[in-house]
Amino acid sequence: MAEARYNILVVSDNSGRGEGGVEVFKQELSEALARRHNVTLFTANPDMPQHDGIQQVVTTRPPVLDFGSGAEGTATEMERRDWIKYLAGQEPRQYGLQDPASRPYDIIIAHSRFSGPAAAELRENWYQDARLVHFLHTSPERLPFVKGFAPEKAEYKAARDSAIERAAMGRADVVAGVGPLLSEVSRGLSAQGVNVPHSHEVIPGTRVHDPVQHDPAPETLNLLVMGRVDDPLKGVDDAAEAVKLLNRAGTSVHLTVRGIPDEQVQKAWDELRRLTGGNVTVKPRTSSATELDEDIRGSHAVIMPSKHEGFGMVAPEGLAHGVPVLVNEESGAAQFLQDPDRVPPRIGGPCVVAEPTDGSSRVQAWMTAIAQLKQDLPQRQAGALHLRETLQQYTWEHAAEATVQVAMGQTPLPRRDPRALLTAQERDLVRTVQGPNGQLLRPDAPEQSPRTPGPAQTAVGVRRDGPQHEHRTTGTPVPVWQAGLAQNQAGAESARATAPPGSQTPLWQVGLPQNQPGTGGPRTAAPAENATPLWQVGVSQDPPAAGSRHDAASPGRGAGEGDPGRPGGVRQPPPDLSGPRDGGIEV
Question: Which CATH class is domain 7-67+75-202?
Answer without folding.
Answer: alpha beta
